[in-house]
């Protein structure tokens, strides 16, 4: 008897469950784009080097071209299509729009998903390669331009909109902090 080459998976994408039969070699990126017509996630290098396909899986940044769909079974997946709440853009999306954090726009969905992950990682106190004091008791480091650049370094922009992207991430992080502090008061 030949081994099975496909499986049924349930992908929880943007709050909706989708059950698919997928070949074991199908990437999450291909399942999103080709099977579910969620084309906001872009195919760039298909090798995990450019970040254009970045999505959030269980709240963490993931390059979907390297994640197999079968490994995403029953996990919470958020794509750029699931960021806004109705007509209200996510603060990161709004900051990218306000500060021209894009030019051609091809990398923008991956940049936005990555930025949301960066802000969450920073708020949780995760250090980066440029964090000076990595002791847990030091708390989150200041979200300096150097921290943002390092944390976003897995996402390439061929148009070179990096300065505006860093500004958009900084603004969205500040707004997120303000919202969180306001909710805690």
Structure description:
Strands 2-1-5-3-4 form a five-stranded mixed sheet, with helices on both faces. It contains five helices and five strands; from the N terminus they run E-E-H-E-E-E-H-H-H-H. It has 185 residues and is an alpha+beta fold.
Question: Strand-and-helix sequence, N→C?
Answer: EEHEEEHHHH
Q: Give the strand order of the largest sheet, numbering strands 1, 2, ... along the chain.
A: 2-1-5-3-4
The count of helical stretches stands at: 5
- Count the beta strands: 5
Largest sheet: 5 strands, mixed
Q: Poorly predicted ranges (pLDDT <50, ≥5 residues)? A: none
Mean pLDDT: 93
Q: Structural class, judged by helices and strands?
A: alpha+beta
Q: β content, as a range?
A: 5-15%
Shape: globular
Radius of gyration: 17 Å
Q: Quote the distance from N terminus to C terminus.
A: 63 Å
Question: How much helicity do the residues have?
Answer: 25-40%
């Amino acid at each position: 008897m030949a081994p099975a080459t496909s499986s049924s998976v349930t992908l929880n994408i943007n709050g909706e469950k989708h059950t698919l039969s997928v070949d074991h070699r199908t990437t999450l990126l291909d399942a999103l784009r080709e099977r579910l017509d969620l084309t906001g996630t872009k195919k760039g290098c298909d090798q995990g080097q450019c970040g254009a396909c970045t999505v959030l899986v269980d709240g963490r940044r993931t390059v979907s071209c390297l994640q197999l769909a079968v490994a995403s079974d029953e996990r919470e997946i958020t794509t750029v299509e699931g960021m806004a709440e109705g007509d209200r853009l996510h603060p990161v999306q709004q900051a990218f729009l306000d500060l021209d954090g894009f030019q051609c726009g091809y990398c923008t969905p991956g940049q936005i998903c990555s930025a949301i992950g960066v802000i969450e990682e920073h708020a949780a106190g995760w250090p980066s390669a440029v964090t000076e004091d990595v002791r847990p008791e030091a708390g989150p480091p200041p979200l300096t331009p150097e921290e943002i650049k390092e944390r976003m370094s897995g996402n390439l922009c061929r148009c070179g909109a990096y300065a505006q992207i860093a500004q958009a991430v900084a603004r969205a992080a500040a707004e997120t902090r303000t919202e969180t502090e306001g909710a805690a008061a």
